[in-house]
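Subject: Sanity check before I submit

Could someone independently write out the structure tokens for this chain? I want to compare against mine line by line before I put it in a report. The sequence has 410 residues.
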Amino acid sequence: MLTADLVRVRRAKEQLRLVPIKAEARAAVEALAARYLQIAESQVGGTRSELMAAFDAVPFAARDAKLVSGLIKLTLDRCEFESKLEHDPSELRHRVFIRAAARRRELGPTGRLDRDALLEVLAREEDVTPELLMRLLYADLKENHRLIGFDRIRADALLSLYELSSEQAVLLKAESVVVVVHESTPAAYRRFFRKLKFLRLLHRAERLPSGAYQIEVDGPFSLFSAVTKYGFALAMLLPVLRESERFNLSASVRWGKERERLRFELEGGLQGASGKSTKASLPDEVSALLAGFPKQAGPWRVRVATRIFSLPGVGVLVPDLTFVHRESGFTAHLEVLGYWSREAVFRRIDLLEAGAKAPFVFAVPARLRVSEQVLPDTLSASLYVYKGVIRPKLVRERLDALAGAQETPE
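---
Independent answer below. Compare away.
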């Protein structure tokens, strides 16, 4: 991924805009990308310094310096450098210097140290050649790291990655992001929300009169401190948006050394293109519960949830799992708030009080410091505060309680 200093942008009043690669220049830029990729592939076995020297030997126009730096950065990201060495360079250096110092003392002030002879003796002890010993002595320096592998990619794909990475680098500086997503079917919306939740982003969703969904996502710069891990998760929102039918994104970002607040906008999507991805992974906690629940299920069946509960003007509930009682048909839903905030928990309560009638279990990690007693007795819902992992047995106990309350006459 690119860093902010490698992104080509221009400011227009309070707007931050990416500088696009012009159509007439795209072929030349793609040829340049192909050259860097070819160099990286041909340099496998060489050192990082040799690779960088080969990159530096490629001519380019001065105005393209930042673009070139970005292409090289993304090419280097696909390089695998040797990380584990059979011999410890620092230990080898220590031994060489100690042996050389001892030999100098033996020779006296007029004697001359035979460097090659000393290295040959030490090389035999290490069972390597003197040439290899010399390389191993400083193999831990970054410029001497060996390139041992390269993940191939086409030049046009590298260019597309450069454009995506530029957008992602801007979002790493976001305070907030508002996205409007347009899909053709409820199933497509469901896939989108599942992918969104898999990223563990703090968000609020609302259905618009047009049928589209507006999602407000907290950015890393809105947190108490900018969290790198969360920032990268937000950056991964863009590939998800690109798989939607159509989206519009507006972000408030803090840009530059002065962290000036600017507006950044994007739009795109597949627009009905074929080959749209339908896969949406579940968060780890949800996958584990889905796999482990059948052993404690009793009369309950569990499946991945397919519904979206929308309260116009209030918000959206998107459960992870749905549980159905085999005998009574009673249905309840579960949402895991594993990487959310205390505010998100209370927002769920507000949604229930506003009219969401479906029975819910909310699984909340103990680190959010939320009491299971905060839910009013009048709501058909339950809070399950878990430590570490979600225990299927305790989920079933809450499902049984919800079903029992439903059957109890008033």
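---
OP: Matches mine. For the report I'm noting this point. Residues 172-277 form a domain with the Alpha-Beta Plaits fold (CATH 3.30.70).
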